[in-house]
Amino acid sequence: MRRLFLILAALLLAAGCSIAGGDAKGRTTVTFRLWDEQVAKAYQQSFAAFEKAHPDIGVQVQVVPWADYWTKLPADVAAGTAADIFWTNTSNFGLYADNGQLLPVEFTGDWTTSVVDLYTRNGKLWGVPQLWDSIALYYNKDLVPDPPTLTWDPAAPDDALRATLRKLTVDSAGRHPGQSGFDPQKTRVYGFNAAFDLQAILWDFVGSNGGTWQSGDTFDFADRPKTVQAVQYVVDLINAEHVAPPAADTNTNGDKALQLFTQGRMALFQSGPYHLKSIQEAAGFQWGVAPLPNGPAGRVGVVHGVAAVASAKTRHRDATVEVLKWIGSADGQRPIAEGGYAFPGVTTAQPVFVDYWKKQGVDLQPFLDSAGGTTFPAPLGPRVGAGQTAYTPILQQVFLGRLGVAEGLRKAQDAGNEAMKG
Question: What family does the Swiss-Prot or TrEMBL record give for this protein (predicted)?
């Protein structure tokens, strides 16, 4: 048996495979998982520098697409096969922290305070801030020459946002919504990306109308008239105004609106800095960033952050902590900023990111203003992820127009709160 093991070990080492967390160079291997292919490029650069300074530690980057991330991660965490370090968001980390599946962060850094607050639970910090994002309005300069300053009001018969979006939306015959003969089935250019997108669309409209989504550990969106009113407004942009793509195209394809924008088939695209690189690489036109539409309660956007957390079941605790410290430092996050991938979680690295885009002719001030103004809280709680999973298919039916807004929100709220009971 010992001979067989030695033979197998030799074969694996010859193939460059790892045994018990080591690699062919005899280093301890720390695995790192995230969902963003773009930012993974920056981490590869970062870890190359780390490995030069730490020749006894290697870092293996794993990219799991967003579509599969939140189904694969829980199974891997439960089985003890999760990466040593992995990205998480506010909807999911609480459950892992409460169940003792994460290592607490026992060192400090020059990190964005709002992200630190998001990942602090029961008096402990559970994640190292990696990046943050706010929401603003991308615009196609060929279709909208000047930065738009828009207002919206669900109680107004014809508010500025709706009027503008009708002018920007055009079908293959050159007609606009509201004009005789306009065919929504043959839309050539959409005005806006209204869709079932919680972070980029729905919560921002809810917040700027004075509504709420969650109270404590309970969803309350169906109980808030201002929330119902805001959701109705967004759904109407799709199904009544026809200024946004049909929900059948966007409900299950989160990249559809982005693709339409980069193809020149959408004038205004409300989203976060996480799409800057994709737009830069794919758009064949000049574009810019403008402030969010101003609602009855002002401009209110979601500010969210991504953190890197360490598995409590890591077999290489010391090496894992060293990697965490690196990606929590200005040097570790500099490739994220220098490459223009995202606002880094380390505050001293953030000007580098802003300067990168300034050199590209893109002013990121609307994102900074959005983060510094009135914000809408991203949902928190150990079971929020389960609640969102339960209510998502119901709200998708609302956006398809198959379920009334008030009725759908009530059903969604009930399903979400029931799921959060565990």
Answer: Belongs to the bacterial solute-binding protein 1 family.
Q: Which helix (H) or strand (E) holds 94?
A: helix 93-98
| Nearest-angstrom CA–CA distance, 292 and 317 | 43
Dump pLDDT digits (tens) for 293-336: 999 999 999 999 999 999 999 999 999 999 999 999 999 999 99
Contact 69, 86 (CB under 8 A): no
pLDDT for 126 equals 97
Fold match between 20-133+304-359 and 136-302+383-420?
yes
| Distance, CA of 377 to CA of 67 (rounded, Å) | 23
The domain ranges of the chain are 20-133+304-359, 136-302+383-420
The confidence band for 184, taking pLDDT boundaries of 50, 70 and 90, is very high
State both tokens at 270: 């409300």
Give the DSSP letter string of 288-344: EEEPPPBBTTB--EE-EEEEEEEBTT-S-HHHHHHHHHHHTSHHHHHHHHHTT--EE
In the chain the first and final C-alpha atoms are separated, in Å, by 46
Residues with Cβ within 8 Å of residue 33, at least 6 apart in sequence: 61, 62, 63, 64, 73, 82, 83, 85, 86, 87
CA distances from 152 to 40, 65, 161, 241, 292 (A): 37, 35, 5, 14, 10
What pTM was computed for the model? 0.87
Instruction: Give me 243's structure tokens.
Output: 């200024």
Calpha distance 124→116 (Å, rounded)? 10
> Which overall architecture, per CATH, does domain 20-133+304-359 show?
3-Layer(aba) Sandwich (3.40)
CB neighbour list of residue 48: distance below 8 Å, 6 or more residues apart: none
Q: Is 224 exposed, middle or buried (0-12, 13-18, 19+ CB in 10 A)?
A: buried
Half-sphere exposure of 61 (CA within 13 A, CB side): 19
β pairing state of 28-34 and 57-63: parallel
41 HSE (CA, 13 A, CB side) = 9
Q: Do the Cβ atoms of 306 and 219 come closer than 8 Å?
A: no
> What does CATH list as the number for 136-302+383-420?
3.40.190.10
pLDDT of residue 21: 59
CB 150 within 8 A of CB 294: yes
Q: How far is it, in rounded angstroms, from Cα 344 to Cα 59?
A: 20
Which burial class, exposed, middle or buried, applies to 151 when counting CB atoms under 10 A from its CB (0-12, 13-18, 19+)?
middle
Residue 84's beta-bridge partner residues?
none
